[in-house]
Amino acid sequence: MPVQKAVFPVAGLGTRFLPATKAIPKEMLTVVDRPIIDYAVREAVEAGCETLIFVTGRTKNAIADYFDRNPDLENELEAKQKKDALEIVRNIIPSHIQCIYVRQSEALGLGHAVNCASPLITPDEHFAVLLPDDLIDGYPVGAMKQLIQAHDREHCSVLALEQVAWSEVEKYGIIKPVNDSTTPVQIESIVEKPKRDAAPSNWSVVGRYVLSGSIMPILQNVQRGTGGEIQLTDGISALLATEKMIGIPLSGKRFDCGNKVGFLEANLHFGLRYLDK
């Protein structure tokens, strides 16, 4: 069964970008001329996902507004013969794509956010998860397409991987590979934010996943872990006990737009493309 559904956990408060995020969802902050969330959505659509599930909070209405049609704006642009601008706003998202919005009532962690989409995911299908804070300029194809291509070959869950400095392992979910000299990497276990001395490797999980729908009932029963939150990593760890899982070292460049330095680097990277045109 092809991967056709993508989940976007976008309910976070974005406190690192206050005061801007007091009024603007962090996912709507722009990298050059498009919101961060737009890049993740384009990546999912490129990969073949046709149902986009946004797990939002009560302050995130701007995300739905962005992907919705705006007849008043379109009529005004058409009346003023601003054809280029009209084309842009009409084609933010292809017409065959379905957007669904699910409310996360409490900020209980990434595992809880993903599980909020469980009524829309069947146990026998695989689905994509994209964390918009990780903005990835994939090469030669988008990051999610790389994962889905691997899923189509191996018929199992797939995690995006990136090697980080050993001094950084405490910030990430870290996998233990069966053998890290082969690609794809078969995953033996995973742990959330281990101490450097206890880390099984320096292979970190980046914010892209293709997961079996059978993880949903697991997440419903996961106890709160690191930071007192329901961790997606803990659900993946439990899933590993019954299912094969692989990791794909991503081809491309990742920007951590969850912090100011990464956000500025992304703007510079994508902004330079406009100078080349």
TrEMBL record:
Pfam families for the chain: NTP_transferase
Catalytic activity: alpha-D-glucose 1-phosphate + UTP + H(+) = UDP-alpha-D-glucose + diphosphate
Keywords for this protein: Nucleotidyltransferase, Transferase
Annotated InterPro entries: GalU_uridylyltTrfase_bac/arc, NTP_transferase_dom, Nucleotide-diphossugar_trans
Single Gene Ontology BP annotation: UDP-alpha-D-glucose metabolic process
One GO molecular-function entry: UTP:glucose-1-phosphate uridylyltransferase activity
Limits of the Nucleotidyl transferase domain: 10-268
Enzyme Commission code: 2.7.7.9
CDD domains: UGPase_prokaryotic
Similarity annotation: Belongs to the UDPGP type 2 family.
PANTHER family assigned to the protein according to its UniProt record, in alphabetical order: UTP--GLUCOSE-1-PHOSPHATE URIDYLYLTRANSFERASE
The protein, known as: UTP--glucose-1-phosphate uridylyltransferase
Source organism of this protein record: Hydromonas duriensis
Source taxonomy: Bacteria, Pseudomonadati, Pseudomonadota, Betaproteobacteria, Burkholderiales
